[in-house]
Amino acid sequence: ERRPEENDTYALSRIGKESVYSYFVTEKPVGWLTAFATLGIQIGILAFFVMASEANLQKDTTDIQFTWKCPRDSEWCDDKADLDVYGWVIFSLLMIAFLAKDLINGCKLVYFSSKARHSLGSRIRYFIGGMGLCSITLFAFYVSTVYNKAIATSNTAIIANSVIVLFIMEIDEYIFSAVDAINEKWTKHAADKEVSEMKDEIARQRAQIESQQGEIDSQRKDLRMLREAVEKIQESQTVAVATASDSESAECDGNTGAQHVERVDQNTMPSQVEQKIQELNAASATSSNTTSECTAHESITTHAAESEDTGSGTDAGGRNNE
């Protein structure tokens, strides 16, 4: 649901903010008088064209052009008018181009006045404004058609007459411009103030957005520089890692050779140790055998010596006995 200010803003946009008819949607008594006076002026001027197009031969004020010529020496009359269907087509296009907008906006304003959400005063103001705009527009179209039908004798004449009538329809805007030139406060509407405040707020927010956009651009630039620095660091790290990998590969190759030699040494060491152990065992066995032999030889020698001592004792005893 719209607020009253929004309703007035919409009504002003329909009836025209630069026209004295805009006072119909306001609550200014002087504005209403100005709008009615302008409407009366336009109707009065157009009424002159209607009266001038009447076929009243008793009055000299008529503008009717008689295009039929009837020579005295002929039974036939000729129409000397140069107006054809193309002239009427141009006339129709001019009327539609200049009057269609006012007619449509007036109808919309009349329909807008029927909304139940409006107050009674607002509905009356919108209805009078819409009906006034529709009425003057339809009356201008009627006057232009009748007047051109009565006096237009060529395609250029119908265009010129149409332009004159359309110029009369611009009087309300010229009067509004004159009032605005006298005092701008007289042409300021309450809805315009609301719109002006909204525009100021929009301008302020736009300036704030632009400043924030500048900060964002600056931060984006800093991020770009930081990203470039990080990429450079990553490249240097990549080079360092590659160099370290090459050195480690060389060291690994050296270590592999050393490990291979160690494995070979480890593989050959058991056989050498076993051989040494076998030799030591054999030497131990030999020494054991030698020791055993020596022990046996000593025991044999000792036994032999004891035997000799015993034998010599026996011989000595026998000799003594002898």
Element order, helices and strands?
HHEEHHHHH
Strand order of the largest sheet: 1-2
The whole-angstrom Rg is 65 Å
Into which percentage range does the β-strand content fall? under 5%
Averaged pLDDT: 75
Class by SSE composition: mainly alpha
Cα end-to-end separation:
173 Å
Low-pLDDT parts are 257-270, 290-322
Number of helices: 7
Q: What kind of sheet is the major sheet? A: 2 strands, antiparallel
Would you count the extended β strands for me?
A: 2
Question: In percent, how helical is the residue content?
Answer: over 70%
Shape: elongated
Question: What is the element layout, followed by pairings?
Answer:
Layout: H1 4-15, H2 29-52, E1 68-69, E2 78-79, H3 85-112, H4 120-151, H5 155-168, H6 171-182, H7 190-321
Antiparallel strand pairs: 1-2
Helix pairs in contact: 1-7, 2-4, 3-4, 3-5, 4-5
Structural descriptors:
322 residues, two-stranded antiparallel ribbon, 2 strands, 79% helix
Characterise this structure.
By secondary structure, this protein is an all-alpha fold. 79% of the residues lie in helices and 1% in strands. The chain is built from seven helices and two strands. The protein has helices spanning 4-15, 29-52, 85-112, 120-151, 155-168, 171-182, 190-321; strands spanning 68-69, 78-79. It has a two-stranded antiparallel ribbon with strand order 1-2. Strand 1 (68-69) and strand 2 form a beta hairpin. The longest helix is centred in the last third of the chain and has 132 residues, at 190-321. The chain starts with a helix and ends with a helix. Mean pLDDT is 75; it is low at 257-270 and 290-322.
